[in-house]
TrEMBL record:
CDD domains linked to this entry: AdoMet_MTases (cd02440)
Domain of life of the source: Bacteria
One example GO MF annotation: rRNA (guanine-N2-)-methyltransferase activity
Annotated InterPro entries: 16SrRNA_methylTrfase_J, SAM-dependent_MTases_sf
Protein name as it appears in the record: SAM-dependent methyltransferase
Pfam families registered for this protein in UniProt: SAM_MT
Length: 261
């Protein structure tokens, strides 16, 4: 996807500086906004997306006006559930204890990583791998802003490490048993209709299916288990070798688990 970077109307000097910096980081063109519409800028540059530096943070805008920006999603609600002792399906599927380490191979906007980081606490470690550089930038900047806020998720956000890489390449470079849990949450091959909030991420993100080789490498890297989130009843579980499936009776999603020990 070809991108360009610009600012909102009447940018501050700080916003212009960020726009230049992020354009250099992404290896794309910076285009002064002036009074042009985003559609006109994209058309003139032959771009499929425009990264806009706004006061509230970076926003990625697509050809059809789709907007993608960092937000914690359901993380805060799930955090409250943990506080109230209600548990969390992902934490239970991972069988986590505070202080452990988790490698999230499909970071996306980082909502799952936030919940995991909160649960693991200050002695835990969460590394999130994102293949699409501009999405990684959105998440890194969003986590930075969240970490400096008064949100209950601030400390959890400050502990997440964002890595720009193809997860298979990253896994291959890691030593054996270097994380307690390795996690995959790819785009579902058949999307859940209710998940409309994920539509912009699906538009901009990598939609390739998981490769069996990635699961093989994940099993080498994980000390305890590998977890895959997919649509309930998905054939992906069997294709990728997941026999143990955890899902609530009314749940739309399920977790496949391969336990090593």
């Amino acid at each position: 996807m070809k991108l360009v970077v610009t600012t909102s109307y009447q940018p501050t000097p700080d916003q212009e500086e960020k726009a230049h910096d992020w354009a250099r980081l992404l290896g794309v063109e910076y285009v002064p906004r002036r009074r042009e519409s985003l559609k006109k800028i994209a058309t003139a540059c032959g771009a499929e997306g425009v990264l806009v530096v706004r006061q509230e943070g970076p926003v990625l805008v697509g050809e059809g006006g789709e907007e993608l920006f960092f937000h914690p999603g359901t993380a805060l609600l799930r955090l409250r559930n943990l506080w109230q002792g209600k548990g969390d399906p992902l934490i239970e599927a991972m069988a986590l204890t505070p202080g452990e380490s988790v490698l999230d191979c499909t970071l996306g906007l980082g909502s799952e990583a936030l919940v995991v980081s909160f649960f693991l606490g200050p002695s835990g470690r969460v590394v999130g791998v994102e293949k699409v550089p501009v999405i990684a930038l959105l998440v890194r900047e969003g986590l930075k802003a969240l970490a400096s806020s008064s949100s209950p998720l601030a400390e959890a956000a400050s502990r997440i490490e964002v890595v720009v890489a193809d997860h298979l390449d990253y896994l291959k470079a890691l030593p054996e048993e270097s994380f307690d849990v390795v996690y995959f949450d790819p785009f579902f091959q058949q999307p859940v209709k209710a998940a409309v909030n994920l539509a912009p991420l699906r538009y901009f993100g990598s939609r390739e299916a998981l490769r069996p080789e990635a699961i093989k490498e994940a099993l080498r890297v994980a000390r305890r288990r590998v977890v895959l989130k997919e649509r309930k009843g998905s054939a992906e579980f069997a294709r990728l070798g997941f026999r143990e499936i955890i899902a609530g009776r009314q749940a739309r999603v399920a977790y496949g688990v391969i336990v090593k020990r």
